[in-house]
């Protein structure tokens, strides 16, 4: 393993505020990724399975269709196009290395590449959380204020909401990534995962990680609670006028409008929670 030696004093694992000084500290310059599974008989199956799942053409086709078709130039489809872009970007950061891990027993990734990968994963994950909350507000406006919908959800507001979500995502990504990679990482440099995720990388730090864990936990919980609250409140207001509808056909039509968004929310938040 390629390590760079430094004749400096640096902190190792500590208890409370006590530090143990270690001489000849070795700072890793790359990490070794073990992959998703070590069972050879499963690697071929997983490779085919994830190769079939991994297709950015569907999302790119959706973006192209929304852009080309004037009738789809509405706030709902605008947000759907942005969501497709986020999903495509997320997949391109994550899935290719996962597929490679099924073909190669172990992979090496440079320290800087690990930083970039984690930053992009965090950025797109945060952006998707925020966008799903924005889409819930869009559904609320559609059903509860149909006559004022285009006035409230103007093009300017839609663009502003997306730009704001990406700004917050970049800030959150910079905070979490900076919090992790300002720590020293020592031998061993083996990540028991197929990409540079926050928990497995943080586990390799050779200093006390209590402060970093607190920052990461607080950021993740705040993001999830904030977006979940917006989604739940929006759908609570949506259910009120739906329940007041006397026509079952009207109720079914209103619920079908929200069904796809609710499905995405259930899948997304059940996995990240």
From TrEMBL:
Q: Where are the transmembrane segments?
A: 44-65, 77-96, 108-135, 215-242
State a GO cellular component annotated for this protein.
plasma membrane
Keywords in alphabetical order, please. Answer: Cell membrane, G-protein coupled receptor, Membrane, Olfaction, Receptor, Sensory transduction, Transducer, Transmembrane, Transmembrane helix
Q: Which InterPro entries match?
A: GPCR_Rhodpsn_7TM (IPR017452), Olfact_rcpt (IPR000725)
- Domain of life assignment: Eukaryota
G-protein coupled receptors family 1 profile domain: from which residue to which, for each copy?
58-273
Q: Molecular function (GO) terms listed?
A: G protein-coupled receptor activity; olfactory receptor activity
Annotated membrane topology = Multi-pass membrane protein
Q: What is this protein called?
A: G-protein coupled receptors family 1 profile domain-containing protein
From what organism does this protein derive? Answer: Macaca fascicularis
Query: Upper taxonomic classification of the species?
Result: Eukaryota, Metazoa, Chordata, Craniata, Vertebrata
């Amino acid at each position: 393993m390629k390590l760079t030696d430094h004749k400096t004093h640096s902190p190792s694992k500590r208890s409370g505020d006590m530090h143990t000084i270690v001489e000849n500290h070795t700072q890793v310059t790359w990490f070794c990724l073990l992959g998703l599974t070590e069972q050879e008989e499963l690697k071929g199956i997983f490779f085919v399975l994830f190769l079939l799942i991994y297709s950015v053409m569907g999302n790119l086709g959706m973006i192209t269709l929304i852009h080309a078709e004037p009738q789809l130039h509405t706030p709902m489809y605008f947000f759907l196009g942005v969501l497709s872009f986020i999903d495509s970007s997320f997949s391109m950061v994550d899935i290719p290395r996962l597929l490679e891990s099924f073909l190669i027993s172990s992979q090496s990734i440079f320290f800087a590449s690990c930083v970039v990968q984690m930053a992009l994963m965090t950025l797109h994950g945060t952006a998707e959380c925020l966008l799903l909350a924005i889409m819930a507000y869009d559904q609320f406006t559609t059903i509860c204020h149909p006559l004022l919908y285009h006035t409230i959800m103007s093009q300017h507001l839609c663009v502003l909401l997306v730009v704001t979500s990406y700004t917050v995502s970049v800030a959150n990504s910079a905070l979490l990534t900076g919090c992790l990679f300002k720590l020293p990482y020592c031998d061993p440099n083996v990540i028991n995962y197929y990409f540079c995720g926050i928990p497995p990388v943080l586990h390799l730090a050779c200093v006390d990680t209590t402060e970093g864990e607190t920052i990461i936990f607080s950021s993740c919980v705040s993001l999830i609670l904030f977006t979940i609250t917006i989604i739940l409140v929006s759908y609570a207001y949506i259910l009120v006028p739906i329940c007041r509808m006397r026509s079952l056909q009207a109720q079914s039509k209103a619920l079908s409008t929200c069904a796809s968004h609710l499905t995405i929310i259930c899948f997304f938040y059940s996995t990240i929670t």
